[in-house]
Amino acid sequence: MSDAQRADALLLDSPREGRGQLKVFLGAAPGVGKTYAMLQAAQRQRQIGRDVRIGIVETHGRAETEAMRVGLLEQPMVRRDHRGVPLQEMDLDGLLDVRPQLVLVDELAHSNAPGSRHAKRWQDVLELLDAGLDVYTTVNVQHLESLNDQVRAITGVQVRETVPDWVLQEADDILLIDLPPRELLERLREGKVYVPEQARAAIDAFFSQTNLTALRELAMQTAAARVDADLHRRHRLLGQAAPAVLGRLLVGIAGNAEAEGLVRHAARVAERRHLPWSVVHVDTGTSRNEAQLARLQTAQALAERLGAEVVELRGERVARTLLDHAAARRASVLLVGGRGRARRRWAIWQPSVAEQLIRAGCGLEISVLAQTPTDEPVRSPSRKAWNRRDYLLAVLATGGATAIALLLSRFLALPNISLVFLAAVLVVAVRSSLGPALACAGLSFLLYDFLFIPPTFTFIVARQEDVLTLVFFLLMAVLSGNLASRQRRQFQALRQTQADTTALLELSRQLGAATDAQAVATAAVRQLKQTTDLRAIVATREGRGSWRFLGDSAPTLTEQELAAAEWAFEHGQPAGQGTDTLPSGRWWWLPLSGDERSLGLLGIELPVPSRTAQQTRRLVAALAQPLSQALGRATLAEQLEAARLHGQTEELRSALLASVSHDLRTPLTAMRGAIDSLASLGDSMSESDRQELLEATRDEAERLDRYIQNLLDMTRLGHGGLKLIRDWTAPGDIVASAVQRLKRVLADLRLDVRLPDAPPLLYVHPALIEQALVNVLENAARFSPDGGRLEIAVESDARALRFIVSDEGPGVPEAERKKIFDMFYTAARGDRGGPGTGLGLSICQGMIGAHGGRVAVTDGLDGRGTGVILELPLQPQPELEKDAS
């Protein structure tokens, strides 16, 4: 045994983190003592200090069982009304809130009252286990899904409440509660199982000695299979050679009455032989009636419940397609059903699928299950349902061919006349199916003989060569019709396959072009509507009970439908209509998962009641996979963009906070000096001096106001408190507003503004862009010489728009331009060399970067000074309404 195999076994044997332990008390029939044994085990757990609570226990009035409940806490039941009848059910939500260490849940196969979250009690148990609670439960062997047919054959009773076998396979322990049939019958007679009247009826019907013995054997076989599986796992844990996995079990089913029995038998074989298994149906393109389709879908749904993989294949030859699939999946066992009692008349020379498999399946174990024939006639999959229009077409085509042949018989030889009838057979085969084509061939044969073979107007053939002509005509007509009908079926199958593949490719193409979650959802909803003609919605949860619906308008959901959506999101399993979890609504919810977490839900609105084909459900599930990947990619892109923006704004916020002392000290010092002078000198100062001090104070106050505005806006942006309130803005308006704010600062400079005739609009937060431009202009004005020239230019191309501020100051050396965006960077020359405040270009870079733009430094006017470029990306321009005049 390899180390990898042993490691896998250790992982399987180790307790699953966060999941509770399940112990099943298995019995052969009611009354063997399962509930008593479960309560007895629970009492032992209570005595060692565990928190034990009864979820639901059915004692059926048995005194000794009632006595075992003493001392155990019970969770109050919840009442549900169904058609005016009050029903008591286990309080699942109450148990999840209380969270005891161990919960007792009797009768695992019980069906819950309509309106409950789950249709079956075993689903409640699975949710308790997922929540980390240990569960003790009971079940009788006749409730196992795979044994349903055997139990009916043994007892004559159809058990309606069943449990999938994989639920028992998930159990950590299975305890067989055994009681010999004689003792059980004695308990029945004493009234310890049922009241005397019920006991006598039960003994006469279900509880016969023969039935109990057979059920006891089934229970022992089930327990023995579990022991064998545990032994197999223990071998691997010890690193010893364990029985080799033989491959895979394939089960071929058709839409007949034996399909469900075949699936159940396959589940037992796979369990005993430790084989993964698949249920395969080969669609040959032949039509199926409603009953066949319903039986096929029921068998496939049963296979999924029992843990099988369901595969749909398309092919002309069933046996060859099954063998090819077996080779591709490296299967070792192929199981099919026997022909049964219903045989076709030509079956003597046409071998069955089982016979073809046995002849061609070299190296493959072929098993044929000869099931008990049913009273229902089994129709061949190749036999068409009666279609009046198709057979009417056959009659009309034969009549038309006869008329044409009568006209051409004057000019053509007799052998050529047969080609007209062959053409009619081909037309019918291509337009309908094999049955009408054969009918057309038969009618053409009779009319050809009656009207054209001498002696005419009789069915007597006088010449021997005409007999050979008729035989060859009939043979060619049948072969041509069969071949044309086969090609039509293949074409229909290929067209369906192409439609499914095209839907997947088109959805993948549209999802690949989507850039955010809304675009992803819109593309998926549109494609699902085109493919399935069903309404779809993509939902993401913003909080418990709060949903955001993408791709379509928000649907009106009932409480049950919202509860189904919550459950599907939290558990990562489908819920709603068509499932066993809250199926009463109109919506079917499929979880969209990525990286082991739920991203959202795909909701499909189904007709009520739902008759959606199993194939359509699998197609929707297949389309949900690329949707999950695209939604995960869009979510990740949004998170990365948010992280990038947060990093930039956090850097800017840090720069602002670190520079507060520098930014505020200079204007405050100047203002305090001016105020002190006015206060101390008072009236001794001249009017002009007082006015000058007041104007200086006002200028410094305006300067301080700009710094504080920068600080407040950028700090809020860094913490997410200030959102980018984008709007369409003209670049000229931003320039005009910035110049107006700095009117006093720019008064001693020669300002040139260059704007294009029709610049594109910007989709930005106008106040932030204006503040960035104000900072750059103020910086340029401070370092420009008196009377110097300052230029503001606006340029654009198809990708971006740029504000360029150029001055005639000392400039920034080439080697230092990469460092100019660092906080508090200073140089002997350049924009940072004078009495600055320390904000500089780092603030502008944060403002422009928040919009996805960039800031760059270049040469100023005529190769001197500094030029600062504020570049912003352009969005698709809005369509402006034309003036009505």
Distance between the termini: 88 Å
Q: Radius of gyration, Cα only, in angstroms?
A: 42 Å
Q: Overall mean pLDDT score?
A: 77
Helix coverage percent of residues? 40-55%
Describe the structure.
With 885 residues, the protein is an alpha/beta fold. Helices cover 49% and strands 16% of the residues. Strands 3-2-6-7-1-8 form a 6-stranded parallel beta sheet, sandwiched between helices. Strand 10, helix 12 and strand 11 (309-314) form a beta-alpha-beta unit. It starts with a helix and ends in a 12-residue tail after the last strand.
Secondary structure elements and their pairing?
Layout: H1 3-13, E1 22-27, H2 34-47, E2 52-56, H3 63-67, E3 73-74, E4 78-82, E5 85-89, H4 92-98, E6 102-105, H5 121-130, E7 134-140, H6 148-155, H7 165-169, E8 173-177, H8 181-189, H9 196-204, H10 209-237, E9 249-252, H11 259-273, E10 277-283, H12 290-305, E11 309-314, H13 318-328, E12 333-337, H14 353-360, E13 365-369, H15 388-408, H16 414-431, H17 434-452, H18 464-513, H19 517-532, E14 535-543, E15 546-550, H20 559-571, E16 575-576, E17 587-594, E18 597-605, H21 614-658, H22 660-681, H23 687-718, E19 727-729, H24 731-741, E20 750-754, E21 762-764, H25 766-783, E22 789-796, E23 800-806, H26 840-849, E24 854-859, E25 866-873
Parallel strand pairs: 1-7, 1-8, 2-3, 2-6, 6-7, 9-10, 9-12, 10-11, 12-13, 20-22
Antiparallel strand pairs: 4-5, 14-15, 14-18, 16-17, 17-18, 19-21, 22-23, 23-25, 24-25
Helix pairs in contact: 1-10, 11-12, 13-14, 15-16, 15-17, 16-17, 16-18, 17-18, 18-19, 18-21, 19-21, 21-23, 21-26, 22-23, 24-25, 25-26
